[in-house]
Amino acid sequence: MRRTKRRSFTLIELLVVIGISAILSALLLTAITQVKGRALRIQCGNNVRQLGVALRAFVVDNNEYPLFVNPHRSSGNSPEHLTYWTATLQRELDNQSHTNEKFLSQGIWQCPAAYKPPGWGKDDDFNSYGYNWYGLSHQTDTNCFGLGGTYIWPGVPSPGPAISESQVASPSEMIALGDAFMGGNGFIRDGAFILYRSGSITNDWPPGSTKRSNARHLGKANVVFCDGHVESPTFKFLFEDTSDDALSRWNRDHLPHRGKL
User: What pTM did the predictor assign?
Assistant: First the structure.
C-alpha cells in the first residue's frame, strides 16, 4: 500500500502566518482601544452635559453666572455663590451646601478617562472639569472676558460683580466649562479646575501632562456652552486656531481679543 507523504509548512509560510496574525491582532487591539475611548468620551460628555444643566439652573434662578471663587461669602458677599464654582453647581445638583470639595473625586465630577499621575496629591486636588473663568484675558487683568466674575488685582483676587446673563453676547457660541485643560504653544496641562487658553503656557508641567491630556480623548475635549449644548472640539481648535470663530468662543462679548493671547 502506497503511503501519501504529508507536506509540512515551510519556515517562510510559518513566518507569513505569524505576520498576518500579528497584523490582525494589532488591528483588533486598535479597534478595541478606539471603541473604548469613544465610550469613555461619551460618558464624559454626559457628565459635562449634567454640569451644564446645573449651570443653566443657577443662571435661570439668579440671572448671572457663578463666581469662580467667593472668598468673602462668610462676610455676606454674594451669598447665593458658594466659596467655589464647583460647590455652587453641586448645590444645584443635590440641593445641599458643601463645606468641602470631596464630591469632586466622585460621580459626574470624575472623567472616566482622566488619569491622575503619581505624586499629585489628594484625589480632590486633581480635577476633571474646569470653568471658563478668564476667557482670553490674562489673570492680572481687571476685566476678564470669561464667566467667573470681574477681578481686581494685584494681590489676592477679589471678585467683582458676577457676570450677568445679559453680558454674554452669544450663549450658543461661548464656552462655559468642560474638561479641565489649560493649553497654549503646543502644551496642554490637566488637573486644574479651569478651562483656559493662554500664550503664557510655555512648558509641559507637570511632566507628561501634554501626552496624558492627548490620550484622554484622543486630542479632543468635551465642552458645554452657555446655552447647554455639548461639543467635542479638537485641541488644535481650542488652543491653536487663531481664527475669529475659534478665539471669540472664549469671550463673553464674542470678540476674538487676539492681543490677549
Answer: 0.84
